[in-house]
Design brief:
alpha/beta, five-stranded parallel beta sheet, three-stranded parallel beta sheet, 12 helices, 45% helix, globular
């Protein structure tokens, strides 16, 4: 190459390093797609059962549903069939996007942790029969003292991911804002990094980001594939943070959370994002469940 060609090549490389991707890739730029999901906690106070939850999610217009393992286990204990439930989901035209579970896979006690992994695998195998590809993996059972060893937690999350590949149901690392253990986005990022696994995924939540003091700018560190599901809700600043509980969650867009900014960050990530309405509001539990589900979906669509 002559001197002019060298300079031209270096100039092109420098421009590629600073220009926005969409200016270089044009129409090839992948844009974020959103799927809307109903976490059944939002209408759990009405105590209608998992079959009715599926019907309501479909009737309200959601793409998918996020179920709770206790509800699924109650259905099976009462004589329900997993095959029949899977057909119910298929007939409803929705998907089971994720399941909320509480296996103690991250705890320090060896025997308890072994039981936790056994429970996790059993739940994964059960969910696979429903066509569900994800399961929440929170710090269930982890004590506040001693402080969580993030490196050990990463090793254990790696084990959970191995089980996910074995069963086809991948664990989404969830942090709880008020847990006192894994409560901060920074901790969750450290655990996911310590796992050193390409399938590591985080499950953020508007309320937990607020309650645990994470804030929202840290979400800029996440790549598109790192987040598949995001729990949507809102909060008000008029009540002290430390006094707020899950029951204080309100419809997204009705409070003080910077949700428009969060939505913009999700749009910039690319890929497919499942935004799931997860509320525990006692006032909503007193209302018609279908009305609550429709109202939540309408508010999420307006934000997106």
């Amino acid at each position: 190459m002559n001197r002019r060609n060298v300079l031209q090549t270096l100039g092109a490389a420098s421009m590629a390093a600073v220009l926005p991707v969409d200016m270089l890739a044009g129409s090839a730029l992948k844009k974020t797609k959103f799927r809307f999901c109903l976490n059944t906690s939002t209408i759990s106070g009405q105590k209608l059962g998992i079959v009715k939850y599926i019907e309501i999610a479909a009737a309200a217009g959601y793409d998918g549903i996020e179920i709770w393992l206790p509800d699924l286990n109650a259905y099976l204990k009462d004589g329900g069939s997993i095959t029949a439930l899977a057909q119910k989901v298929k007939d409803a035209g929705i998907t089971v996007e994720d399941a909320i579970a509480f296996a103690p896979w991250m705890v320090e006690d060896d025997a308890q942790r072994a039981g936790g992994f056994k429970q996790l695998e059993e739940e994964m195998n059960l969910l696979a029969q429903l066509g569900c590809r994800r399961i929440a993996a929170p710090p269930a059972g982890v004590k506040k003292d001693p402080p969580l060893d993030l490196f050990k937690a990463g090793e254990r999350y790696k084990q959970a991911l191995d089980l996910g590949r074995k069963t086809g149901v991948m664990p989404q690392l969830e942090f709880w804002g008020a847990s006192g253990t894994l409560f901060h986005l920074g901790q969750a990022l450290a655990v996911a990094a310590a796992a050193n696994d390409p399938d590591a995924r985080l499950l953020p939540d508007i309320y937990h980001l607020f309650r645990g003091g994470s804030g929202f700018d840290g979400l800029r560190l996440l790549r598109g594939e790192t987040v598949e599901i995001f729990h949507f809700n809102d909060f008000v600043n008029s009540k002290p943070v430390a006094e707020q509980t899950d029951a204080d969650r309100i419809y997204p867009g009705d409070g003080d959370a910077p949700i428009e900014g969060v939505v913009q960050l999700l749009k910039e990530m690319g890929g497919t994002k499942v935004i799931s309405l997860e509320l525990f509001n006692r006032d909503y539990w007193k209302q018609d469940a279908l009305l609550v589900a429709k109202t939540g979906l309408q508010k999420m669509r307006a934000l997106v």
